[in-house]
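idk why but the lab printer keeps eating my pages so im just putting this in chat instead. protein + glutathione:
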Amino acid sequence: MRYVEARDAATMDGLRLALTVGVPGPWSQAAMFMFDFKGIDYVPVAQYAGEDNDDLVAWTGIRNAPTAVYNDEAPRSNALDIVALAERIRPEPRLVPEDPAARQQMYGISWEICGEGGFGWTRRITMRTPLPPEYQALADTPDDGVPPLTNRTNMARDYRSPDAEVAAAEARLCAMLDYFAELLTKQQRRGSPYFVGNAVTACDLHWAAFSALLDPLPHEQNPMPNWLRARYSYIGDTIARHKHEILLEHRDHVFREHLSLPLRF
Ligand SMILES: N[C@@H](CCC(=O)N[C@@H](CS)C(=O)NCC(=O)O)C(=O)O
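predcted complex ->
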């Protein structure tokens, strides 16, 4: 994908979206999915994983990705704020239910997937464990993707968690996976392949993006660097027992019907 540097994007109008360069970061991918689904054009802006990103910070106040800036409005970096922005810029096709109860349910599920303490956040904590040899071998296999992080200081500072949270992360993650699978199973019994009601909503796109942290799509559809594929793919025996088939069926359905592949990053 072609990225504009932050210092140039800062002087432009319209929608600009800072995205992590060269990797399918789930928060970045999810933000793209919202705008792509609605056919909203945006200028992709380069955010470099782990780096200081001084120009981006000077412009938006935010070092990581994604951040959406629409005209002269305040920058938005929270996943749910980005959904609301997309919905406002182009209401149709809808990603947010009109019915208040369904809307509350949708935002709640999205929060569980991508909010602080949610699935993505918690999965990132579980990724700190060392990789077993076969995954380490994959991680060490060079490819033409972006190289592994050189600056780990920023991410270590930004995403640190208390010891108690680290210890509890795996069980917390498994409980979330069970809950998502239970919701989808109930919906399947009602005849719907979606999390809420009978139509696709933002939380379905969120799960399509974040499921990569459980089971990344194959290289042809997700040409991510080996070091990151190894990290995303290794989940360990406990989480593997909670990787319910219906979660992946849902992901496949959403990509097939509502998004396009291969992923771009
Ligand atoms: N701003 C997002 C969270 C974004 C986030 O955690 N981004 C990480 C994904 S791993 C990132 O940009 N990492 C690269 C970096 O920190 O440089 C939200 O609040 O919903």
